[in-house]
Amino acid sequence: MRAVVVASALTFWSVAAHAQVFEPARYLSLAVTVLRVEAPTGTGELKVGTGITVAPGVVVTNCHVTRGAISVRVAKRGGLWPADGQFADAEHDLCFLSVPSWPGRPVRFAEEGALRLYQPVVAMGFTGGADVSMTPGEITGLHGHDGGRIIQTTSRFTSGASGGALLDVEGGLIGVLTFRLRGNIDHYFSVPASWVIGRLPITADQFRPIRSSEGRAFWEADPCCMPYFMREGALRAQEKWPELLRLADDWIAADPADADAWLARGVAYARLRQPRDAAGALERTVSLAPRNAAAWYELGAAGVETADADSVSKAAAALAGLDVGLAQKLTEMSKTKEQLR
Questions:
Q1: Distance CA 13, CA 229 (A)
Q2: CATH class for domain 223-340?
Q3: 51-70 burial string, b = 16+ CB within 10 Å, else e?
Q4: Which helix (H) or strand (E) holds 173?
Q5: Which of 197, 329, 340, 341 is deepest in the core (most CB within 10 A)?
Q6: What is the DSSP string of 269-320?
Q7: What pLDDT, in 10s, does the model give residues 154-209?
Q8: Same fold, 2-30+109-199 and 223-340
């Protein structure tokens, strides 16, 4: 990742696998909607995150940024503006701050219905808590949860960027940077902008005095109660394949159009050495998400196990345009299996 400084407080990173060319001027103008959030706690700790101006005098951030705070202020270019109230939705990790003295203009909201897999996006936040940074990437997952779609991307961010903006290439807000799962380069998640719109306070009396508070977000729940897509990752890491298969069945029953649910079923069947059942689930996966390289690789691997040359060839052709490394790995697997037959 290579940093290119384009302004005193704005840094861009380029992602090698990302072909979209971004216009710096467009995002420089949008940077004014994003602020640093500072939340001193009763123990003397200063928690730092990011906030987005979503209405005149109203800034949204993650509740896990302001949790435990005895006061909150927002900062921009050396200036400080105190928040005089907060409207919190801890479960969805969205806290709205009343900052009447902040003069910044609100961000423009994008249409949620336009979201699609693999579309280019940009994450904007105070990565490292220092300067506003911009990280381009793409959407790799759209996970249904509580009336919205949690957005998974390759746009990297750190804890200081929590509460930051996930933007489309036109500069519209599509999500709020919220959490990441360590151990995979594309496990970065944002809650949808539709949640912000649906929960935005419309009257001053909805705000409450800022004080230390508790409450966990959906992604901080006990493992048994986490969303399907989060439980799937834990079961795969622990190699609990029968449990993963049961989870996948429940997941598909709840949302039969979720490609990740079908991928989970395919992986579970494959690891349980049932390649024909795996192939059926994986065919469904690639029909729903034709650019999912992991699904094509698993489908090709199932074809190797069942001596289905057509499936192997089709998967190899798809991978050639998606992931050269996985394409080579599939070719080597196929040659090794052929030699053993």
A1: 28
A2: mainly alpha
A3: bbbbeebbbbbbbbbbbbbe
A4: strand 173-180
A5: 329
A6: HHHTT-HHHHHHHHHHHHHH-TT-HHHHHHHHHHHHHHT-HHHHHHHHHHHH
A7: 998 988 999 999 999 889 999 999 999 865 455 899 999 999 999 999 899 999 99
A8: no
- Residue for token pair 């539709």: 194
User: Shortest CA distance to 101 belongs to which of 77, 129, 73, 70?
Assistant: 73
pLDDT of residue 8: 31
Amino acid at 310: D
8 Å CB contact between 251 and 258? yes
What is the reported pLDDT for 5?
29
Q: 33-105 has which CATH code?
A: 2.40.10.10
| Other beta carbons within 10 Å of 260 | 25
* pLDDT tens track for 231-265: 998 898 889 999 999 999 999 999 899 899 999 99
Contact 253, 283 (CB under 8 A): no
- Angle separating helix axes 259-271 and 275-288, nearest 10 degrees: 160
Say if CB 39 and CB 50 are below 8 A apart: no
- Which stretches in the chain have pLDDT values below 50? 1-19, 184
> How many CB atoms sit inside 10 A of residue 14's CB?
13
Sign of CA dihedral 149, 1, 32, 45: positive
Contact between residue 76 and residue 103 where contact means Cβ atoms under 8 Å apart = no
So where are the chain's domains? Answer: 2-30+109-199, 33-105, 223-340
Distance CA 250, CA 256 (A): 10
SS3 141: strand
Pick from 294, 284, 221: which is nearest to 258 by CA? 284
Place of tokens 């990280």: 135
CA 340 vs CA 271, 333, 335: distances in Å:
20, 11, 9
